[in-house]
Amino acid sequence: MKQRTFSPARPLIVAIAGVGLLLAGHLLPLGGEGYIAQQVRNSLHGPAFLAFTAVFFLLARASLGTLGAALISATAALLAAPGGEFLQYLTGKDTSLADIAHDWAGAAATLLVLGGWFAWRDGRIDRRRRREILAVGGLLALVVAAPLTWWLYVAAARASSMPVLADFERRGQTALLGGLAAELSVVARPDHWPGRGDYVLEVRLRQSRYAGVDFLAPPPDWTGYASLRFLAATGDGTRRRLTLRIHDATHNQAYGDRFNGRWPIGPEPAQICVPLAEIRQAPKDRSMDLSAIAGMIFFLTGNRGGEVFLLDDVTLTKSACPEDLQRTDSASRPGFAGLASASSPASSGPSGPARP
After folding, report:
1. How many CA atoms lie within 13 A of 335 on its CB side?
2. Are 294 and 248 in contact (CB under 8 A)?
3. DSSP-based three-state secondary structure for 248
4. Which residues of 130-166 are buried (b: 16+ CB within 10 A; e: fewer)?
5. pLDDT digits (tens, 9 = 90+) for 96-138
């Protein structure tokens, strides 16, 4: 039987290249800085270490055997995971112990699957033990891949839902919503609700000056559409003013550099329509980029806690706002004098209260 000779060159080169690639992966943009891109990037931790450990193990095994390859692969993963987070810390990026755990879980899944398989091939374990190890490793691999699979599904579902921004009928939509001092729930639509489908979003507010629902990743390209429509109502029998804030990717955080609209809502569902031309012209010193919408928030102001509003069928349309939708107060933002219509919002103006 030919004796195996130790040759550290190949596993050492693989280790240096692989660890370098993993560390670089912590710093590369990998698809931009949008909310979904960030979630996809975070969910790549486990799968990346799974793939790295597999390649490293298979190349190292030719020189080191199964046990040696497992040991050096595990060592590389144990060092690279916290090393990557430390590198992010040095460059001012967020760090997370959960990311390290995901890295190690990916490496462990590979070591169980490949280690169990080759240990059986080498005659170190029997077939029953091999099945047990492979089952555990395969299950762990599925767990590691689940976040990436989920966020890819969310991204695909968002893209395929256009021009509907949210109707709360499909899974994944609430993953792209954030509660702004509020609890969000998808509930059965009330009786006589005019919207499509069976569900609406219930936004239950806590005591806060501003509280509502934040659309964390609205589809960015609104070009080719003429209006934004949605259904809204209070869910607690009161009458309030609903504020909608929309901004694009170049928004400078100034109040006058975004769209701010307000509408009266009550227990009866209000069908509200906003011309996109009005949104485009809302910033004081420029035009909003409708191909790069980056944020949208619906909220109420001056909340004591316990207030509720309902939201549904947030949709872009290619037709102008019809005359039979809710009539609102005249717009008072600079540049909008005399432009009030059945679809124009009541603005709080540059000195108004709605400035979250």
Report:
1. 14
2. yes
3. strand
4. beebbeebeebbeebbebbebbeebbeebeebeebbb
5. 888 899 999 999 999 999 999 999 999 999 999 999 999 999 9
